[in-house]
Amino acid sequence: MDIPPTQLPHGGLSLVRGFSTPELFQLTFGQLVDQQAARYGSKDAVLVGWTNARLSFQDLSLRTKELARGLLAMGVGKGDRIAILSGDDERVVELFFAAGRIGAVLVILNKTYTVNECMRALEHTGEPCDRDSETLTD
């Protein structure tokens, strides 16, 4: 059952309580990656042993910009949901930050989900955009 946000407490927005210092960052995911790339450059940002992936902060910034441009070229935009059935490797990290750069939402479905579990998760997250996953990894 879907409840309109206007009928939820605080208009459907999260309510955060606690200390006010340090202040929360006011950055987009793209700005965060770029900031870390400027700060840490060639230092390791992502290491994945089973794929032998090693991405520096600078690599992550560049790769997520390229992937974001590719997503835009495919017609994916702000507010779109990208659902992937995935494990946990460097491609998930890249896609997470690339989606964030363009305002899209990455919905990560566990690769051990059954078909019914995937369908139920997708019902709760909204309709994902319809794109071929192989295109994203090329």
Automatic annotation (TrEMBL):
Question: Which Gene3D superfamilies does the entry mention?
Answer: 3.40.50.980
Q: Which domain of life is it from?
A: Eukaryota
In this chain the AMP-dependent synthetase/ligase domain maps to 34-126
Q: Which InterPro entries match?
A: AMP-dep_synth/lig_dom (IPR000873), ATP-dep_AMP-bd_enzyme (IPR050237)
SUPFAM superfamilies, per database record: Acetyl-CoA synthetase-like
| Name recorded for this polypeptide | AMP-dependent synthetase/ligase domain-containing protein
Q: Which organism is it from?
A: Fusarium falciforme
Record lineage: Eukaryota, Fungi, Dikarya, Ascomycota, Pezizomycotina
